[in-house]
Specification:
By secondary structure, the chain is mainly β. It has a single domain, classed as Porin (Beta Barrel). It is 9% helix and 40% strand. The protein is built from three helices and 14 strands. The strands form two sheets. A twelve-stranded antiparallel sheet has the order 1-5-6-7-4-11-14-13-12-10-9-8, with helices on one face. The longest helix has 12 residues. The protein is globular, with a radius of gyration of 18 Å. The protein starts with 5 loop residues before the first helix and ends with a strand.
């Protein structure tokens, strides 16, 4: 069976804003649950009808409450408030009458401001053509990773018994697209493993509890290229089974596009 395109799954949100019934195939699974980056992207797509065109996505806050298995589920979305400049929307991902994930999105129009601080610059690292190509290994790497092309440039590999403090490199979709929107970037942003797995010498599971994303300069009325996006992630702390990490993504031109903070559980 051929893999399912990301664009095909986005099309499942046929009537954004309604309760969309969705089934995700096995090639987008992450162990026993649907890949979290895909779930958040589907939720963001379902929010679009509630948002005035001039208001861009500024933040998403995702709470993964329970595993979302391969059975059908639906997304219920409603607007919480729309003020003079910010609209807040919530999506609930429901399976078997239980909430498995909630996503809260804040969308705001540009406004004039005297404050301007230069964004974080992309770290120096090997170009994609010289960085290590991370392979997909059936039965070892999560199923969803087959949809992404990774080039490892910073930090040690998972389960190498070394490092654990940071990782970085380049990533893009293996799927061809002429229009990479914010939903695609959300899926890219969650595709890397947590750096703490590099401390281990044998495979172990890790899963995200909460995920906060901040979008910097994207324009929902435009598309980005499906080229190499730079990624860097550092661990702020990891103890007692939980890890706190922050990551940053730059677009193909080197502009800061997104930053995120995740709290992960580590089963080791």
């Amino acid at each position: 069976m051929s893999d399912t395109l990301f664009s095909t799954l986005m099309e499942k949100i046929e009537h954004p804003g309604a309760e969309n019934r969705i089934h995700v195939p096995d090639d987008w699974m992450q162990g026993r649950t649907v890949y979290g980056g895909l779930v958040a992207a589907l939720a963001l797509k379902s929010m679009r009808p509630h948002i005035p065109l001039e208001r861009k996505v500024r933040t998403l806050f995702v709470s993964f409450i329970a595993p979302l298995d391969s059975k059908p589920f639906h997304i219920h979305t409603n607007m919480l408030r729309s003020g003079k400049s910010v609209t807040t929307v919530e999506s609930r991902v429901i399976q078997n009458d239980s909430i498995c994930c909630t996503v809260s999105g804040s969308f705001g129009a540009d406004r004039s401001s005297q404050i301007q601080i230069p964004p974080v610059k992309r770290p120096e690292m090997q170009e994609p053509s010289r960085a290590f190509e991370l392979p997909y290994i059936d039965g070892l790497t999560p199923s969803f990773t087959r949809h992404f092309d990774y080039r490892w440039a910073i930090g040690e590999f998972p389960f190498s018994g070394k490092g654990g403090g940071e990782i970085g490199g380049w990533i893009n979709f293996r799927e061809e697209t002429t229009c990479l929107t914010e939903e695609w970037l959300v899926a890219l942003a969650d595709a890397w493993p947590t750096p703490v797995l590099s401390q281990l010498t044998q495979p172990a599971a890790a899963s995200t509890m909460t995920w906060a994303l901040g979008f910097v300069h994207l324009n929902r009325l435009a598309c980005s290229e499906n080229q190499w996006w730079a990624y860097h992630c550092v661990i702020d702390s990891a103890e007692r089974g939980y890890a706190h990490e922050r990551s940053t993504i730059w677009d193909p031109e080197g502009h800061l596009a997104l930053y995120s903070f995740q709290t992960n559980t580590v089963f080791a």
